[in-house]
């Protein structure tokens, strides 16, 4: 299985995993020398130039400060192609939800900030959305998680 994962925002990065092995990663901060940089167009072209084959899965997760369509800051997670039933998958913490219009799970920043353990709430969100995508898409988890 070939997975291209990216975070375009704060501390932007690409990572390409093939058959459970990290093939390459590109971090925006390393190339730009600016702390907490976003990915740039040249960063995207650098990542695409490194690909040996078309990825089977594209993963993205991260932080969104909010805008006109999402009037609140939130963490988000999605997989593409989206496996059938992904939006119905059980995710944690209880405050997390699936936004059908955006095609992604979200967890509002305020729900993380006010949780008994913000760290545990965010980790639960990341792990449970990964579990939902990996299980429904039949990812080779043994190879990915070694």
Largest sheet strand order: 3-2-1-4-5-7-6
* Average predicted confidence as pLDDT: 80
* Share of residues in helices: 25-40%
The low-pLDDT segments are: none
User: What proportion strand?
Assistant: 25-35%
Terminal-residue CA separation:
14 Å
- The total count of strands amounts to 7
Rg: 16 Å
Number of structural domains: 2
Tell me the overall shape.
globular
Biggest beta-sheet profile: 7 strands, mixed
Class by SSE composition: alpha+beta
Instruction: Tally the helices.
Output: 5
Which descriptors would you attach to this protein?
single chain; 146 residues; alpha+beta; 7-stranded mixed beta sheet; 5 helices
Describe the overall structure.
The chain has 146 residues and is α+β, with helices and mostly antiparallel strands. The chain has 2 domains: 1-55, no CATH class; 62-146, no CATH class. Helix content is 29%, strand content 29%. It has 5 helices and 7 strands; from the N terminus they run βββααββββααα. A 7-stranded mixed β-sheet has the order 3-2-1-4-5-7-6, with helices on both faces. It is globular and about 40 Å long.
Task: Chart the SSEs and their pairings.
Layout: E1 2-7, E2 13-18, E3 21-27, H1 28-32, H2 41-50, E4 57-64, E5 74-80, E6 97-99, E7 104-108, H3 109-113, H4 118-136, H5 141-144
Parallel strand pairs: 1-4
Antiparallel strand pairs: 1-2, 2-3, 4-5, 5-7, 6-7
């Amino acid at each position: 299985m070939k997975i291209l994962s990216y975070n375009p925002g704060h501390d932007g990065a690409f990572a390409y995993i093939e058959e459970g092995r990290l093939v390459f990663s590109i971090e925006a901060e390393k190339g730009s020398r600016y702390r907490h940089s976003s990915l740039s167009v040249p960063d995207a072209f650098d990542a695409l130039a490194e690909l040996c084959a078309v990825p089977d899965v594209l993963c993205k997760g991260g932080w969104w400060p909010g805008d006109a369509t999402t009037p609140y800051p939130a963490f988000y997670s999605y997989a593409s192609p989206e496996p059938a039933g992904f939006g119905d998958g059980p995710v944690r913490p209880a405050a997390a939800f699936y936004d059908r219009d955006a095609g992604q799970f979200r967890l509002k920043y305020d729900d993380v900030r006010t949780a008994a353990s913000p760290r545990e709430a965010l980790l639960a969100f990341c792990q449970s959305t990964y579990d939902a995508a990996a299980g429904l898409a039949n990812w080779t988890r043994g190879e990915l998680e070694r």
